[in-house]
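**Backbone description:**
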Amino acid sequence: MRFLKILFWLLLGGLVAAFVIYNGDERIALHLWGGLIADFSLPFLLILVFLLGFLPMLVAYHAMRWRMRARLAGLERALADLRAVNAAPHPPSEISDEPALPAPSGELPLPADESNQTEER
């Protein structure tokens, strides 16, 4: 895969070099505001316009990639924390083999403080 990437960039560089060699003496006159005229070589102007369109998208791509990597790293840290919590052994006092028994009257038992208040009323 790396070979193909290098081959692609070499071919692109060769095409740009061939374009510059064959069109290097072409001049373009750009009429600007206020009667100004800018004289550019055609290859320089086309490379400049290409870079003006390519570089903002390249920066946006790298920013998105950086943001996704940071997000993925945060999720991996959270997953590692969850795995560490689940892997920790529970103390035997918290684990009970006996199921909880319901109250005999069918009502839920009140805590000690609330049962004292109802008896006083």
